[in-house]
Sequence to fold (460 residues):
Amino acid sequence: MSIFLNILLSISFLTSHPITGQANMSVLVKNLTTGEVIESYRPEHVVPPASVMKLLTTGAALETLGPDFRFPTTLEYSGTIENGVLKGNLYVHGSCDPSLGWQGKTAFFNQWIKAVKSAGIQRIEGGIVADMTMLDGEAQNPAWLCEDAGNYYAPGIFALNYYGNTMNIVLKSGEPGSIATVVKTEPQVEDVYFINHIRCDKISYDGAFVSGLPYSRERYLTGVVPSNLGTFGVKGDLPNPGLLLARHFTSRLREAGIEVKRDATYEADYNPLAPARTELYIHYSEPLSELIKETNVNSNNLYAEAIFRYLGTRYTLPGSIHNSQDLLRDYWRRRGVEMQSAIIKDGCGLAPQDAVSAKAFVQLLTIMARSSNKDAWMASLPTSGLTGTLKTLCPGTALEGRIHAKSGTIAGTKNFAGYIDMPNGETWVFAILINSAPGKAKKIQTVIQDYLLDVCGANR
Fold:
């Protein structure tokens, strides 16, 4: 393993470097053990945090809900059960669980079917209804860029999320100049309609894009792909994941010998005067500690936004994006984090209007390091050179395995905020936010890595 650099670069390395010198920047490095400020540059200056924004969301969720919290998804029925016949509908009532069907894992249907059979239901005269009314109908955050809408990394967020709210669109490329053919979707979506303009050309990269809006059957396919490639996949969002879940549940029930008379439907509008239902079964997600680990280690936008939206329901129902924004700001302000100038538009950092200072992140990280939930919090952060989105940061250096942080990356932007385990046993807390730099994120990261190695080496 290499040693720290021997020359002192300090903050001037970032402020004078050709890549980062003219960037929009906010930096704070602090000794968590002693309280000493190690490095500081415009620490109160707010900048877009990109995915570092997830720290605000996951930290607030962990502190308010606890590491053992599990998202419930409830099976409920209307009407009555008489002689094995449900004279009404069977509802799947969602509460923002992001993990249902994640990575195609649908074994939970077996427990649901078992619960239906245990209730004595052999026939359903109504249908399966996806109840998505815990959230309002604004599934797509209006602060997100139009070019992101419909892409796999920016799916709509619903009270019922399923299959990662993502589908793989399988296409087949042909001769140069031809239009690629849509073969199928995985999972199969019955009523989606593709307006396809993906051209095949003599290139070596995948330049295909998917766009569309929640609930809409239309998905636009644009861009260019390599010619004569055969079949390949392009990921896009699911227009209505709750409805797809209800359809899959209907099919599984019928396969199990339970007759379901009507086709699956969904409800999206909250009705406080809706007739009472009878609870049949509650499915629980994995504990929140595991969900935030997926959120932070792999920078999962769906998980972050679903948690963000659920937090908003603690203010009022149906939950709204505005409620979630207010809760996140108010929560951290009450905990002593300086949020006066912060701008919160979402919970994952996709919104370019998001703006948070390095000082605010260091304050948040300090609070979490002293929290009773510290162990779950630290376990949720990727480790430099080893795991998740930090795997390429400082591998083979003296800082490999010593940084536990969240990264944030967009064009011209590379941000990090987290902790450094120093060789002398002390812990540092830091936030380095660099935006609008004239270089690719990989080059910005190299500059940040050199800076961290030098500062840690000079102060160990």
In short: Confidence is low (pLDDT under 50) at residues 1-9.
